[in-house]
Amino acid sequence: MPQLRNTLIVIAATTVGVVSLAGCSTTATTPAASGGGEAKTAAVIKGLDNPFFQSMEEGIKAADDSITVQAAQDITDTSGQADRLSSLAGQDFSCFIINPISGNNLLQGVAQLKASGKTVVNIDSPVDPDAAASANATPDTYIGTDNVSAGNLAGEHMASLVDDGAKVAVIGGIAGDVTSGDRVTGFTEGLGGKGQVLETVSADWDRQVALTKAGDLLRANPDIAGFFVANDIMGLGVARAVADAGLTGTVSIISVDGVPEGLSGVESGELTATVAQYPYAIGEMGAQACAAAAAGDELPENVEAPVALVTKDNVSDALAAAPAPFEDFDNPFAQ
């Protein structure tokens, strides 16, 4: 799959933005880009207890500070997130940005929106396409990271750091999670035959769980040469386990996300590298997609956001630009 380091596809010439509250909302209106009447946008995203989704909210705000944003309580709040969308669906919004916790927890609400002729912009975590098609709940566009490509970058970099046949451990998120699985798949492909990949261990996207699981792995396999970790927060838990074992700088740790704490971890040497994706840009593009729809523009079926490998060599650039992308990119829709 293509590696999208420098290409950011943005949907509209009109910028739109956000007022955000977790679990409650403020409503405002924005003139439609076509100049006819008012367009109102609402967003339902994952929990703001995670810095990744905090950055996503910032991106929506940067695009349009009139958007109503509601968030799940946390990464397990599937029913609460669905309730928020159902409540908003009965109001007079013309476009909805959704970032579902699972592939199907928002399908009922999306089906309600599509039956009402509303625009649905799916960002970051995709709805299950087969279930959506069966429920007449297919979003108008999907905007997000190619997680296989993100994992692939990590695997290629790990291959440059470890010896042939070296043991490489893999820490995934929640067992069965599509995002985690895609990142692990991409990592394994990128690593090629360079390392001996141990069985993936799930750490539930949690720092403390990752610390415990990594400690167990190091005790069972003291010759581990590297860890691939499916997000930065877990990566920092792994880094603590590696430090506790006295192996900082000896065992390579590569994670995915590029959240501020992860970038700081690369700067300090706790993490060897992170593959940065851009939740800020994804949120911003979601708002811009709604602006484009209000202007009468046709939305593409899929939009891929960029990823970039951040190492000690370029982390200062990444930190200076955060939460926005630090590399140049083409924006074919910007006016």
From TrEMBL:
One Pfam assignment: Peripla_BP_4
Domain Periplasmic binding protein as annotated: residue spans: 44-297
Keyword set includes Signal: yes
GO molecular function: carbohydrate binding
UniProt keyword RNA-binding, yes or no: no
Cell compartments where the protein resides: Cell envelope
Leader sequence segment: 1-22
Gene Ontology CC: one annotated term: cell envelope
InterPro entries linked to this entry: Peripla_BP_I, SBP_2_dom, TonB_box_CS
Keywords: Signal
Family per similarity comment: Belongs to the bacterial solute-binding protein 2 family.
Full protein name: Sugar ABC transporter substrate-binding protein
Organism from which the protein derives: Arthrobacter cheniae
Lineage: Bacteria, Bacillati, Actinomycetota, Actinomycetes, Micrococcales
